[in-house]
Amino acid sequence: MDHLETLFLDAGGVLVFPNWTRVADAVRRHGLTVSADALAAAEPRIKYDIDQGIRHGNATDSQRAWMYMEMVLEKAGVTPGAASAAAVRELRAYHGEHNLWESVPGDVAPALERLSGLGLKLVVVSNANGVLHPAFDRLGLTPHFHCICDSFLEGVEKPDPRFFRIALDRAGAAPETTMHVGDLYYVDVAGARASGIQPMLIDPFGLYEGYDVDRVRTLDELADRLSAGRAEV
Predict the structure, then answer these.
(1) Strand spans (E) along 104-154
(2) What is the pLDDT of residue 59?
(3) Closest CA to 124 of 65, 188, 64, 176
């Protein structure tokens, strides 16, 4: 890892996460009850299950996003039906304007500072919906990054290597000195490898144990590992 110059980072699941309080409030407005904690607890396994289906390439990221939300709601105890569908429509409208992935864990900004302090150029490479730039401005994340690549605006999404090539060109980076950090094996790892980029998987719950990829639980753990690699050179 001592040769790294550029770090690509996925947005959702790495830097930003769904605002489960907003989701719970939307569900409540439609006459149903669920807690933000129950939604957060349901999400990791659902995301893993969605990832297993991605290998077949039978849906776009935007289609998967709302299948994922419906599955999280059901696993958290929300009965599927007209009311839950109305809540999902409300959330989808909010996401289209503002980005529902708007919760930033407290350790993200300090970890980004640590990674930048290692001399790495940080770049966001995300399957997103066209509002990632204003969302990151609103959340105060934009100053950490050399550039932000939103798949909707580029017209191509991970795991397609074309998206990674766009990001490499925009960052002035080479694949052999770049690492991509993501949270989905069949999107982030597969796409990075097809582009000649070293992958790293964020796996906070150990769901990908036994997979052929390096894993860390958090960005802070990644910063620890990269710092150690720099120190050994």
Answers:
(1) 121-126, 147-150
(2) 62
(3) 188
> Contact, 184 vs 51, CB < 8 A?
yes
- What whole-number distance in Å separates Cα of residue 157 and Cα of residue 181? 15
Phi, psi of 26 (to 5 degrees): -65, -45
Domain count, the chain: 2
**Residue 77 to residues 21, 33, 34, 80, 86, Cα–Cα distance (Å):** 15, 8, 7, 9, 16
175 shares its domain with 196: yes
The CATH number of whichever domain residue 77 belongs to comes to 1.10.150
Beta strand ranges found along the chain (DSSP E): 6-9, 17-18, 101-103, 121-126, 147-150, 178-182, 198-202, 215-216
Does residue 1 form part of some domain?
no
CB 137 within 8 A of CB 23: no
Q: pTM for the complete prediction?
A: 0.94
Question: What digits encode the pLDDT tens for the residues 132-189?
Answer: 999 999 999 999 999 999 999 999 999 999 999 999 999 999 999 999 999 999 999 9
Q: Give the pair of three-digit tokens for residue 112.
A: 């980004």
